[in-house]
Write a structure and sequence with these properties.
This protein is of the alpha/beta class and 330 residues long. Helix 2 crosses helix 3, helix 7 packs antiparallel against helix 8 and helix 10 crosses helix 11. The protein is globular.
């Protein structure tokens, strides 16, 4: 419509870009695909390059392309309030989307003057038994969400800024405190932040939820890595958020430890990772039986947002009994 304000649609990926066009939803599109849940958090110096290096290391994708894409995304995000009269945020309920959402909201929160900002965010869709994300929806289904968009105000912006700071914090305490506060302004945030905390080592076996689901997917025998991903992430995870390449990096770390719980079949070691056949080792079976703590076997160092999980770091763990994080002294 002539004279209507320019609209920008922001989404953490390209999965609905063409569908919005097919649905007749007008506006420009910004794919803001920095996985904000992934740690370590951005450093202050040359942080875009650092993020690109981290994502490339975890996914195997070309570092220079990631650097160009992320740099362009942050540049367009910074300019969006001045260039558009309307911004529409398209996100779902999982950790990947909620972390990206609060990152975007935090970027806008410091701005004094903003255009109208609307949010379309769902955790289910009628007729879809297992709703995982907006990418499952057809063009017509996406168009049906348009009347359900809600205005984003200073309350949501401030909450986004707090959540982004908590995700980057070096201890889980800010995330825990935020989860105990009133998060109704962003109704899916609490569950997503709790899912982030469940990537800490658990008190009962030292495994993260993703690691344990991967081992459980192999409990009945060898399977391809692609099958393990479909089972562990898409079926077992209560809030699936991890793409296949990031999931493979978790498997890679399990395989590459001094006492690996997973081994690769010798005949498939040179196959693409999805086709590599995996099996449990005696260490893996001991972990599933509750006879071993993963953190005592020398796993590779990793990060849960801003929280370092390493031998020399404070031993924060997730307790399924209390439903919160605890500092292990053992």
């Amino acid at each position: 419509m002539k004279g209507a304000p320019r609209t920008l649609h922001i989404r953490c990926g390209d999965d609905i870009r063409d569908k919005l066009v097919d649905a007749g939803v007008e506006g420009d599109y910004l794919s803001f695909a920095d996985p904000a849940w992934l740690g370590p958090p951005p450093a202050s110096n040359a942080w875009i390059s650092g993020r690109a290096a981290l994502i490339a290391e975890r996914t195997g994708l070309p570092r220079q392309k990631i650097r160009a894409d992320i740099g362009d995304a942050y540049w367009r995000l910074a300019r969006a309030p001045a260039e558009y009269g309307c911004i529409v945020l398209w996100f779902e309920h999982d950790l990947y989307d909620q972390a990206a959402l609060v990152r975007v909201l935090a970027a806008f929160a410091a701005r004094k003057k903003l255009p109208s900002i609307d949010l379309i965010c769902i955790d289910r869709f009628r007729g879809i038994k297992r709703f995982i994300g907006l990418g499952q929806l057809s063009a017509a289904q996406l168009a049906s969400l348009w009347p359900r968009r809600k205005r984003v105000g200073r309350q949501q912006l401030g909450l986004g800024a707090k959540a982004w700071a908590a995700l980057r914090a070096p201890t889980p305490e800010p995330l825990e405190a935020l989860c105990k506060s009133d998060l109704r302004a962003l109704p899916f945030l609490k569950a997503a932040l709790r899912r982030q905390l469940q990537e800490l080592p658990w008190t009962r076996d030292g495994l993260s939820l993703t690691e344990r689901n991967a081992l459980r997917a192999l409990a009945k025998g060898p399977r391809s890595a692609g099958e393990v991903y479909a089972d562990a992430q898409l079926k077992r995870d209560p809030l699936p958020f991890m793409g296949d390449l990031f999931f493979w990096s978790v498997l890679r770390d399990l395989i590459g430890t001094p006492r690996p719980p997973i081994a690769v079949s010798a005949t498939t070691r040179r196959a693409s990772w999805r086709k590599r056949v995996l099996r449990l080792t005696p260490v893996g079976r001991a972990l599933l039986a509750g006879k071993l703590d993963w953190q005592t076997t020398g796993p590779l160092d990793r990060w849960v947002g801003g929280i370092e999980v390493a031998h020399a770091a404070p031993a924060w763990r997730w307790s399924p009994r209390t439903g919160g994080a605890t500092l292990s002294t053992g």
